[in-house]
Amino acid sequence: MALSPPRRIDDHWPSGETERTVRLLIVDNAPTRAGIRMALGEDVIVCAEESVPERAVRAAKRERPDVALIAREIPGDWRAAVRGVRRAAPACAVVVLAQRSDVDDMLDSVRAGAVGYVPGPLDAERLRRVFQAASGSEAVLPRALVHELLAELRDGRSPDSDLTGREAQVLGMLRRGHTTATIAERLQIAPVTVRRHISELVHKLGVESRADLIEPFRAS
What we know:
By secondary structure, the chain is of the alpha/beta class. The chain has helices spanning 30-40, 53-63, 78-88, 103-112, 124-135, 143-157, 165-175, 180-187, 191-205, 210-219, and strands spanning 8-10, 19-21, 23-27, 45-50, 67-71, 93-98, 116-119. A hairpin with an 8-residue loop joins strand 1 (8-10) and strand 2 (19-21). The relative contact order is 0.10. The model is unreliable at 1-18 (pLDDT under 50).
């Protein structure tokens, strides 16, 4: 199946151009980067390719990409790569590519500033759809995981519960079966801080114990 030309977008650049081909930053290992280039075709401008977060952020600041594809499995902190690229190039649409589907990775991606999280293998046609959606300012999320995102937003913004953003994160991870140690590791906070959040959740939600926070979701 032939791949259609990439979208073109409007922007203001020093050269005075008002229309240009979308510029892409790829952050992944070398073989995968080559595969992405081949799949997207010659009309896409790959402005930079990197494999580690620090260099990816520098490339984003230098090249101002429109779209960045960042692999979940790169060496180092992939979340820092997403945050750094978004800070360096605020207009850049970041999509995280993951080898497998993980709810918490999807939520972490969105929190870090990504507009997309795409798990599983990507053939050329699917990759093209992801790229075109991101370059067209569309969110790219698996349908099966969208309800998890909505649930966390609902818990964090409910006027009845008055949870903070961090408390909503901890609550969501508890309900997905994570231990205190795992929550602390993923959120990069101390276990005692996680326990403090859990105590506050018990109080705010009017239940008796940690188990009561989880039990309704075990039955559903």
